[in-house]
Structure formats: C-alpha cells, structure tokens
Amino acid sequence: MAVISVRIPDELKAKMRELDINWSEEIRKFIEERVRRAEKQKKLDEIHRLLSGGTPADEGAARKYVRDDRDSN
C-alpha cells in the first residue's frame, strides 16, 4: 500500500487528536469516493463528446426503423 503525506495546520491537528476518529480510514474512504466520482465524470465527458460528434437522425427515423423491423418479421 502506498503512503501519502499531507501537511495541515498545527491547530487542525490538535483538534483532530481530540476526536475519536480513525483519520487514515476516513481520508482513504474520501479519496476512494473522489476517484470513483472523477472516473464517472471522465466517462460521461467521453460519452458526451462522442454523441455530440454524430449526425442527428431525421425526424421520424426511429418510427420508420421500428415499423420496418416489425414488418420484416
């Protein structure tokens, strides 16, 4: 497992010591969730990019394709 160091103000560190919280676990969970959200956003951005580059279908095209498919069976 990798190690990450973070500098925080002494006052904040003193307040953290007063609380019964597993800070390494809290920070690990936060980072994992933040990475998941960033990955999702990256995928959404890629999908939007791909969709915006396409040519819009003519009005009624979907209806025609469905009708053609139904009629062929």
TrEMBL record:
InterPro entries associated with the record: VapB3-like (IPR039709)
Compositionally biased region (Basic and acidic residues): 60-73
Start and end residues of each stretch annotated as Disordered: 51-73
Organism superkingdom: Archaea
Protein name, as recorded: VapB-type antitoxin
